[in-house]
Structure formats: structure tokens, C-alpha cells
Amino acid sequence: MESLQLRLLLSSVLLVFVLNAIPAARCNDEEDNLFQGINKYRASLNLTALTKNDNAECLAGKLADQFQDQPCTNTTGANTIPGMENQFPNFPTLLEKCHLNVTNTRDGIIMPACVPNLVPSLVLSNYTQNVIYSENLNDTKYTGIGINTEKDWVVVILTTSTPEGGYTPASSDNAASSPSSRITFSFHLFFLLLGSFFYALN
């Protein structure tokens, strides 16, 4: 009987790990593919590569959450007027959740796009072939990038190296909202429960 309980415990541990890790890994793949695609695009124009900005990624995640229930239409994403993030009355709150404010984000640019099923080639072309978004990607003042996805939505934020657009300061809370952090948390939970399992065996 005790052996059965231990097997059930181990099965529960593995289930928790799998359910937490797989969706996060999928999001990571989508975001990493876009990150690499954008940097290849910039390299083709002899521009320096953009570096990941965790704070911008945090805000991109908050905005993607806001967009996720909006349908893909001709009036969403890359076809909208830049600055559409301001349509959310809780935008200042979203900034605060990532330890940001208007002062350290005003020189950055937020670029949402909606692509059914987030097909990688279509997502990339939404940024590199759209007139407004490609102009931003071609701009040498942008040095950093934050990307996050939710359902059919992707939000890209470009940052600068200036205090007014650097999306600083860094915050430990930001990492907690990122997909990579969720995977790390899952690993910690997995090994914690696994340790409990072996302790019970002894």
C-alpha cells in the first residue's frame, strides 16, 4: 500500500512538471525565433544586434495579456496606429508591475501584432515588411528588445540605451513573469518534490 502511495506521489510530481514546462517552452520557442529573425534582418542591413531587455519583456507580457482576447482583424496589430497600447486605461499600472514608468520608457516603441497561430514566418514578416514597424527596426537608436506572446498576439518592444528609453531599472519581479523563469520554477518544484519522495522511501 505504501509503495502505491509513493508511486502516485511521483506521478503527481511528474505531471506538475510537464504541465508547467511544456507551454512555457513553446512560448520561448516562438519568442526566440522572432528575436533571432529580427536580428538576422538587422544584420542584413549592417545594423548591430538587439539585446534582450528583461523589463521590456515584462511589459510586453502584460500587454500581450491585455490583447489576447481581441480578434485578429484588419484593424489590429501592425495595421493600427503606433501607441495603441495607450488604449488601456490601466497602462500606468502595467508599467508599475514591471517597475517602470513613463520617464524610463518614453523613448522606446511598442509594436503589437496579431497573427493566427503565430506562424513564425508570418510573424517575422509582420515586423520586417510593415512600413512603420520596419522603419523602427531599421533605426539605429534602438539597442534592446523585449518580446512576449499570448494566444495569437505578439508584442515587441524596442528600447534605447538612454535613461529615457532603457526600460530600467532591472527588477527581480520581471524575471518572475517571463517564460524562462516559469521553467526554472518548475524545475525547482520538481526537484523539491522528488527529494521529498526519496526521503519518504528512507
UniProtKB/TrEMBL annotation:
Residues 1-27 form the signal peptide. Residues 31-158 form the Uncharacterized GPI-anchored protein At5g19230-like domain. Keywords: Membrane, Signal, Transmembrane, Transmembrane helix. The keyword Transmembrane helix applies. Pfam families: At5g19230. The chain crosses the membrane at residues 183-201. The keyword Manganese does not apply. This is Uncharacterized GPI-anchored protein At5g19230-like domain-containing protein.
